[in-house]
Amino acid sequence: MKKIIIIAIISALLVAFFAFDVDQLLSLESIKSSQDQIAEWKNAQPLLVGLGFLGIYIAVTALSLPGAAVMTLAAGAFFGVVWGTIIVSFASTIGATCAFLAARFILKESVQSKFGDRLQALNDGIEKEGAFYLFTLRLVPVFPFFLINLLMGLTPIKTLTFFFVSQIGMLAGTVVYVNAGTQLAQIDSLAGILSPSLIASFALLGIFPLIAKKIISSIQKKKVYAKWNKPKSFDRNLIVIGGGAAGLVSSYIAAAVKAKVTLIEAHKMGGDCLNYGCVPSKALIKSAKVAQQMRDGEKYGLESTTPTFSFKKVMARVHDIIAAVEPHDSVERYTGLGVEVLQGYAKVVDPWTVEIALNDGTTQRLTARSIVIAAGAQPFVPPIPGLDDVGYLTSDTLWDELAKHEEPPKRMVVLGGGPIGCELAQSFARLGSAVAQIEMLPRIMIREDQEVSDLAKSALEKSGVQVLTEHKALRCEKDGDDKYIVVEHAGEEKRVPFDILICAVGRTARLTGYGLEDIGVSTERTVVTNDYLETIYPNIYAAGDVAGPFQFTHTAAHQAWYAAVNSLFGDFKKFKVDYSVIPWTTFIDPEVARVGLNEQEAKEKGIEYELTRYEIDDLDRAIADSATDGFVKVLTVPGKDKILGVTIVGTHAGDLLAEFVFAMKHGMGLNKILGTIHTYPTLAEANKYAAGEWKRAHAPEKVLAWLEKFHGWRRG
Description:
Layout (H helix, E strand, L loop, with lengths): L1 H18 L2 H4 L2 H6 L1 H10 L1 H17 L5 H48 L4 H20 L5 H9 L5 H11 L1 H11 L14 H29 L11 E6 L3 H12 L4 E5 L5 H5 L2 H18 L15 H15 L5 H6 L3 E11 L2 E6 L4 E11 L3 E3 L7 H4 L7 H5 L8 E5 L3 H12 L3 E6 L10 H13 L3 E4 L2 E8 L2 E8 L2 E7 L1 E4 L3 E3 L6 H4 L20 E3 L10 H17 L13 E4 L4 E6 L2 H6 L5 E6 L4 H5 L6 E6 L6 E8 L2 H13 L4 H5 L10 H13 L3 H15 L1
Parallel strand pairs: 1-2, 1-5, 2-3, 5-15, 7-8, 7-13, 8-9
Antiparallel strand pairs: 3-4, 4-5, 6-14, 10-11, 11-12, 16-17, 17-20, 18-19, 19-20
């Protein structure tokens, strides 16, 4: 109701302004013709005239009415430079703040609720640097005064900040206009005030905030480094802590541009992905998939057979695969690329110094202009009572431990319903283990759409996995040699027996042990960084799992480029990390791959979308391969072919997704995919057919109707 009243009052004032030709009274000609009369009033009642002028100016700016520029000139003519500047400075700021508050009260809630996701970057920028941004806008008169007031009202900037920054930012322009107004009789138009030289002066004023920002940044740097003694020279340009994906890429890039770089790794080169995650799990998945294909021989016109195998050999193959990939990430390879590799434990002593406890027992200290923290993450072990007593495995330990087993574990519990848990559960079930997968949430793969979760659950159950959703792990127990995990479901407890329990409930960043806590680098769930991957120390960066927000090998490598380039060249040019197009794949069978938004996220964020769907059971190659489970689902901007997100479920979904990732990254829509030749018969045709489904839904019906008539006419 309050909004309606305010809108009604503003509307009435606007109608009155134009209905009674008030706009004509605020014209340059009118002010010039009334100059003598107003001068008489001012001489007779200076305070009253001053306050009256102040009130009218406030009203004009608050209502975003035309005439503020003319009134600024008039202030100079009537009150002189000093008093004219004071009156206009306060009146314009008060009026601008009123317009700012009106826009905030009337529009902010609805605008932020509807476009909050799209405005998030702007909101974050305003929160961090709103004062500088506003200051710049106020200094440069190219930007409309009223528009700045209204738009800033829709942002999170504080009212007092808006008031004082506006007052200071508009002061230079106010002085120029008021001073010009002292020569009102010689001014024929507003254009006469803004000469090329004056516009250039304003443009130079607009650079001032950037200079001020540099000054403040310099002050902040001095403050954060105050208690440390910076070396006069450095041993290295860059020191990288951690030999996983982020560390390897960071050091390689540094070496490629001829920087002197040292990479420090305490354990195994290649990090978690090579040794414990991506590589061994995909090797296991392949063996398990072949075993399942043997059981499904009839699908291919063959005899179905129960696979016979040595589990020990399967696990040996996993280790052989790791060994085959190891040279790609080895000390020898990176040494050959120009990277100094030291094996030991690194500790940051001060913002430029790293102490290395080498594996040979010696200690070494090195200084560097910049440091990149790429320490990775480790499995999270939930605090379940009795877990230590029964024993458990994680992705870090299961490959070595299970390599000792002659047979697959008879009974296995996989704790966790995320991608890793699903991949392991399906693989071990296909290799003969009786697997129970426990997830406390209503469904597995909770980040995906409901139908994707349902399909994944169905696929796992088809492989023999007992999927227990909405089961909360309470404790672990032993009864003689038997082990149990006690879970709660629907208010009742039950015991799930197991021989092997695998914790796959996520990973947590490695935040301690290498000195960050000693020098005051902020850590929460990850190392806290800004958009450039800088910590509180501008020369110390973080990348990969330790920095978040994603825990993918490909995003770690992506961040590494920014960390390396910013650390080496940030004094000249820095780059914000681009997270706009991040793909990922869950390698169950069938695979689940996604980039951008899915329906679930679009609805949560209030983003309008149009859905296009193509069922893979219609694809010739999928039919030929007897791999018809799945679909391609594309979200687009309503009425346009711009891609908002894609979910693909099916064989080789992760490979098929790449075309959509490329299209989204480079601003191409479904029409471009439709116009691209795809080899027949391939699974990749699914992408083209999905684009075709969108095109058919947007066929120009009216044009087609006229074409039908045209062709009928041509037939005679």
